[in-house]
Specification:
The protein has about 425 residues and is mainly alpha-helical. It has one domain: Preprotein translocase SecY subunit (Orthogonal Bundle). About 70% of the residues lie in helices and about 5% in strands. The chain has 20 helices and five strands. Strand 2 and strand 3 form a beta hairpin. The termini are close together.
Length: about 425
Amino acid sequence: MLKGIANAFKVKELREKILISVGILAIYRFGAYLPVPGIPFRGMLSAYQSADTTSGALAVLNLFSGGALSRVSVFALGIMPYITAQIIFQMMQAVIPSLQALAQEGESGQRKITQYTRYLTVVLALINAIGYLFLFKSSAYGLDFSGLPFPGWIEDIIIVGSLLTGAIIIMWLGEVMTQRGIGNGMSLIIFVNIMSGLPVALIQSVQGNEHGALITAITVAIILIIIPVIVYIERGQRRIPIQYAKRVVGRRIMGAQATYLPIKVNTAGVVPIIFASSILYFPAQIAVFFPNVQWMQDFANTIASGWVNWVLSVFLIVFFAYFYTSMVFNPEETADQLRKSGGFIPGVRPGKATAEYIQNVLNHITLPGAVFMAAIAVVPSIVFSFTGNALVQSFGGTSILIMVGVAMDTIAALESQLKMHNYEGFFK
C-alpha cells in the first residue's frame, strides 16, 4: 500500500490529480465552516442542539453535509440537490424517449444532459435554501435576528443567496474533481463529510452513558469485522467464459483464445445507497418549509428512522441496484461487440440468445449483491437502534457502505492510473 502511494507521487500527471482532489476537498471543508452572512452564528450551534434536531431526519442531513447544516455555513445544502437532480434525470431517461435518445448520442448528448442536470440542481437548491430560511426563523431555533442593521427582506435575500451560491460551488467542485482529479467527486465529498463527523461521534459515544466505552468498543469491533466482508463482496465477480474462433488477420491466422467476461456482484457500487438515502431524506428537505407543522416533522422523522426507514431502505436499495445496473451495463451491446469480434459463449448462440443469457446472469447476480447491501445498511440500525449511542447513530450500515465503497473505487482509479504508467498497483 505504502509503495503504491509512493509510486503514485512519482508520476507527474497522477500527482497533479491527487493534489487537485485534496485541494478541492480542503476548500470544501473550509466552506463547511464559513458562516452565512446574516445568521447569528454564536447562538446557532446551541440552538441546533436544543431544537431536538440531533436525531431523526435533520441529523442525517447534517451528517451528509459534514456538519455544515448545524453551523449554517455557505455549504449547508451539501451535495444532496445535485444528487437528487441526477436521480431525476436518470429515471427520466428510462421513461422519456427523447432523453433516452439524447443519452445514446455519445459525448455531445451527455453534455446536454449534464447541463440540464445543473439547471435542475439550481432550482432544487433554491427551494431548499428557502426552506432552510423558514426553519432558521422558526420557533424551533429561537434565533434573534432583530439586531441586524438591515431590513428583513434584505436579510432573507442574503441568506438564500449565500446558500444557493454554496450549492452551485459544491456542484462545480464535484464536477472538477471528477474530471481532473481521482475518483468520483460527488462520492468523495460525501465520504469526507461522513468522516469529518467521526472524532466527535467517538467522543460523544464514549461519554454518552456509563456503558459508553463498552458499547463503543463493541461497535468499532463489529465495524472492523464488517469492512472485510464488504470488500470481499465488492470485489466478487461472476466470470462468463468467452471463446474466440480462429480468424485470419492479414497473412496471419490467429488461434482460438479463451477468456472471460467479468460481471461484478455489485455492478452499481455505492450508487444505490446514495440514491436511496437521497429519496428517504427528501421529506426532511420538504419538512423544513413547515417547521411548526408537527405532522410534517413526524412524517419526515418516521421516514428517516425506525422500521419504516428500514423497509423502504431495503426496497429502494434493491430497486436502484437493478435500475443503475441496467443503465451502465447493456447486454445487447455486449453481445453485439462479442459477435463483431468473433467471440461467443460456449453452448450459447451468438446475437439475441447471448444477450438473453448475459441478462439472465446479470439479474441473478445483482439480487444477492443488492440484498447484501440492504442488509448491511439496515441490520446495524436495527440491532443498535435501542442503544442511543452517537457512534451507531452517525455511522450505521449506510455510512459504512458508502465509505468503504468510495474508498475502494478511489483506490481502483489510482491503481488503473498506476498500471498505465507501468507501476505496480495497490492490489497484487
